[in-house]
């Protein structure tokens, strides 16, 4: 009798543990096949509301990982990257005639399916003559 009770208790714990893991990851959720960018960087020049891509370079770094972000005007005016890659990033944006912008650490997290995009607004300041 004690063995049957022990087995029943053990099986209950196993089932409860597996259900808890499924709930944490929403296993019933169906993930899309799209690739999601972890970082979306909007670059503007000081005193302008227009997004700027001409001669702008945006680089992200996490440890030894480096990626040059790309914008595809006229359809895409934001720089995007870190596709399906969570992590802690530093963003550097440059444009000739403007001060280099360097961000603090930006944390990109993920859920069970995709990264959760972070939108970063960058305003480049002109170099004083």
Describe the structure concisely.
This protein has one helix at residues 2-25; strands at 37-45, 57-62, 65-69, 79-83, 87-94, 101-102, 106-110, 115-116, 118-124. It is of the alpha+beta class and 129 residues long.
Describe the structure.
- This protein has two domains: 29 residues; 88 residues, Carboxypeptidase-like, regulatory domain (Immunoglobulin-like), CATH 2.60.40.
- The chain has one helix and nine strands, in the order H-E-E-E-E-E-E-E-E-E.
- The longest helix has 24 residues.
- It is elongated, with a radius of gyration of 23 Å.
- About 16% of the residues have low confidence.
Question: Secondary-structure map with pairings?
Answer:
Layout (H helix, E strand, L loop, with lengths): L1 H24 L11 E9 L11 E6 L2 E5 L9 E5 L3 E8 L6 E2 L3 E5 L4 E2 L1 E7 L5
Parallel strand pairs: 1-9
Antiparallel strand pairs: 1-4, 2-3, 2-5, 5-6, 5-7, 7-8
């Amino acid at each position: 009798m004690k063995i049957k009770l022990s087995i029943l208790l053990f099986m209950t714990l196993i089932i409860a543990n597996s259900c808890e893991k499924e709930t944490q990851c929403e296993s019933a959720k169906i993930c899309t096949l799209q690739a999601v960018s972890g970082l979306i960087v909007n670059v503007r020049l000081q005193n302008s509301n227009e997004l700027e891509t001409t001669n702008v370079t945006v680089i992200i770094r996490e440890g030894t990982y480096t990626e040059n972000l790309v914008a595809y005007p006229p359809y895409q005016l934001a720089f995007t990257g870190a596709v399906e890659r969570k992590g802690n990033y530093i963003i550097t944006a440059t444009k000739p005639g403007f001060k280099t912008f360097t961000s603090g650490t930006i944390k990109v997290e993920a859920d069970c399916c995709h990264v959760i995009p972070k939108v970063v607004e960058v305003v480049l300041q002109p170099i004083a003559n």
